[in-house]
Amino acid sequence: MVDKVNFIWFDGEFVPWDEAKVHVLTHTLHYGAGVFEGIRSYKCSDGTSAVFRLNEHVRRLFDSAKILNIKIPYTEQEICDAIIDTLKKNNLPEGYIRPLVFIGDGAMGVHPSTNPIRVIIAVWPWGAYLGEEALEKGIRVKTSSFTRHHVNVMMTKAKICGNYVNSVLAKMEAVSNGYDEALMLDVDGYVAEASGENLFIVRDSKIKTSPLGPVLPGLTRDCIITIAKDMGYEVTEQRFTRDELYIADEAFFSGTAAELTPIREVDGRIIGAGHRGPITKLFQQEFFKIVRGENLKYAGWLTHYEI
Ligand code: PPE
What pTM was computed for the model? Predict the structure, then answer.
């Protein structure tokens, strides 16, 4: 269950959590044509809080809307300000932020016509996505029977609601088979991403991640690439096969919700030593230092606020 807070920002107004409702003929509810973001804020060691990569997430929200050809009736700055206001209004020093842009009710049929474009911003406390233990011990993963999107079937640079039906199918299959997460391959059989995370592998201290194409341009992915390069690691964005993952020394997922989650097993093969590897641990530590404002080199990624 989501941990309720008091208010949701809804079309420019704060509405009590339980009253943030829509009509059953809401267009997006039927056809999935909406866009959303997943953002986190963290308590910093100086006593303030900070949203991680706020501007870039909001930019991706607007990119997603452009790709879907819908116009958000606010500016990027207005949405950034509304996010901070929503965190403050709810006295939330640390949590998850979910802006959603959707097509309201009016006409039915796949052409949304003049239906209103509506925006909500919800925030709530959300701990480790795959469990606190997973961050240290790693998770068990199974290759999905569901293929990740073809770039001309779904728009993969956009975080479109309907794209996630593929993720829901894959995740449900993985969990019902006793695994924590699904490994999704692209249409050519190369490793793409998971239901809600990008993926990295490490072998001989070299880092590799799937190139953009079938995968979401994750901001955590971008953060890992940046910090790994800054630490002197070689990082390549190159297609790789599932057997290259099987023989990796280390593997981990990256995502706003999942943060950096180590992978300890794939399709019954133990990855590396079967627990979080040293390079994964190093990146994880660096990541948590950055989001908590302890590494000033990346201070530009943080938007501070005070409760
Ligand atoms: N791939 C997919 C398919 C994806 O959904 C996410 C985020 C990522 C990669 C990583 O992107 P980024 O968060 O910018 O590093 N998934 C969001 C939704 C998770 C959910 O279950 O809901 C998230 O992590 O917020």
Answer: 0.97
